[in-house]
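Please go through the sequence and fold tokens given here and tell me how the chain folds. Record follows.
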Amino acid sequence: MNLLKPIGQKTRTSFTLNLQTKDLMKLFDLTNKYNLTITELLERFISDLADGKRCRGNNEHESARAYLETFRERDDFFGYMMRNHELTLEDHDYDIDHYYSYLCYEEFIYPCFEEYLDKKGLKTKYEGLSIADKLEIAKEIPREIRKRLKKLERRLER
């Protein structure tokens, strides 16, 4: 399934935020100060972060990205593939099944996994395993990513 609606069409979804009451009150005060709702603030930040259609400019995009980079990147195999092999949903036209198939394509994933083990110094840990066993381990993360994407897909269909 393709996650994108026709261009120009908005997608409405909901997320749950777990905030301390005090943090929520401070956020409410901050958004009121700038005549925004909390929803508007989050929509605008996300658009700036993703360099979306409603991005307010390059400076805002760079600031949002700089904030994101204060968090630690994934240090697992999937993070390695994302950084070194440009694996994004956008590269696969936001098609979950195509993306997942590509991630699990043995002639792609096995060399990536071997490369990852080598760079991380983990080759000896997996030395005695067969190629099939290594492939099963390598495919665990794409399976988890697919579950998250399917959950997002269900939310978007509501």
Summary: The chain has two domains: 21-68, 77-157. The mean pLDDT is 82. The radius of gyration is 20 Å. The first helix runs from residue 21 to 33.
